[in-house]
Specification:
Blueprint lengths: L2 H28 L5 H36 L3 H23 L1 H8 L1
Length: 107
Amino acid sequence: MTHSKIKNILDNLNQLEENLIALPDDIWLSINPRDNESVEKGTAFLKSFNDNFSGFSESAGKLSKQIKAHFEINPETAETEGEAVSEKSHSRIIKLKFPASRAIEDQ
């Protein structure tokens, strides 16, 4: 499995968790405080969601740690290294494309 696939899996897991964290706010805003049925359904959903989400969040954290440990990667560090490599490559491309302008700057 490639580093980019592993990073993609970890990013998707993180994004899903963030989306689920935001969901209760949207549900809360959709509850009509003047409609008892809406209040009951909304609060019942939120209570159940909170119970289920705590289990999901714990499992997602464990899965993320397990994947990182097994493949011996740290996406945060790898991203920084990748950006540094990209900057070096970009600098080399500029030097190759514009050798004359580089020589003028050096003079």
